[in-house]
Design a protein that fits this description.
By secondary structure, the protein is an alpha/beta fold. It is built from 14 helices and 12 strands. The structure holds pyridoxal-5'-phosphate.
Amino acid sequence: MTIATKMAAAMQSSSWIRRMFEEGAELKARLGADNVFDFTLGNPDLEPPDAFKAALLDAVRDDRQGLHSYMPNAGLPATRQAVAKHLTGVHQLAFVPEDVIMTCGAAGALNVILKTLLDPWDEVIILAPFFPEYLFYIENHGGVARVVETDDRFLPVLHEVEEALNDHTVAVIINSPNNPTGQIYNDAMLRSLGKVLAKGSARFGRPIYLINDEPYRRLVYDGLSLPSVFQAYPDSLVATSFSKDLSLPGERIGYIGLNPAARDRTEFLAGMILANRILGYINAPALMQRVVAKLTDISVDIAPYARRRELFSRILEEIGYDFIKPQGTFYLFPRSPLIDDVAFIQELKKENILAVPGRGFARPGYFRLAFCVPESIIAGAAPGLARAFARAADSKPQP
Ligand SMILES: Cc1ncc(COP(=O)(O)O)c(C=O)c1O
């Protein structure tokens, strides 16, 4: 075989999200897109705000020399400055441009952080259910993922995190607002987690960094706002992007923010800047950096997502599905009416409804529905969701 054994194994285990999405594409080709209810992919369907298009046109018309050249690997000074100003406002901590590294999306940000931190066999704690790409990102850099379960509300169980810490632990990745559960960690939770990590860092004699992967920061409902990981714990970072809040996932633009109070800050930043280069990203896209510098405080209007969340929640509740209404993101993560979530996904498929089984996120017994689709698709899926639920109920042994 030409490709590496490790790569072949990765391809085998590669995500359920993609697998279901590909099955959906096949179904759509056969039945017509209007007859398939596809809730597999977290690909924002709202167009970027008008301000994005205006800033993009300005950037394109700007014909000063050198705007498309190589640049410092950490990004354009003016963009880092704009992001630092934004972070200062949001987190009420003084950020300087040096605390910011522009990256190719949140995925690029996570890979840069992990490349910089991980020696072979170092461990990164992730909390199940989790975004499945974390496993690949950690493995990319020779690390080992240590999975810790969350409780039945998908929140961290602090003593279990504490028990998982050891002298190989270099970081904990959290993801709030969370994909796939839609849950948010409140300030008390972040601070308690911070205390656990501070204690662990002291015990094992090395900093254990807390990374919040937060591309969904602005997608929160009911007037909630997201607490600051930077306020909760000094050795912290944010990995984020403009993919979801500006609907720009294809443009690959995001950033890392490092807590100004983090230990070994200067060396850590220098390491991440080198990682950005030698991972082959070199720097984040120049044109997009110039555009987002003007848009750090803007996001898509989340009202359509809020309406879909209401509609979907009402439909699921009326049928009898067991779920927690998401506080953020555009995902619902109901309990599967069949113990075997993959079997239930097959029942949904019979109704031309596509969803991702919970085991794709390391939490079997659930399934994920992405509601970045028009309300008509959500409403149209209601009868099929009801029929699949009824069949699951019928197939259960009677008491
Ligand atoms: C939890 C989570 N982290 C990271 C990413 C990757 O984001 P980006 O496209 O900005 O790299 C995603 C994308 O869906 C995500 O859901």
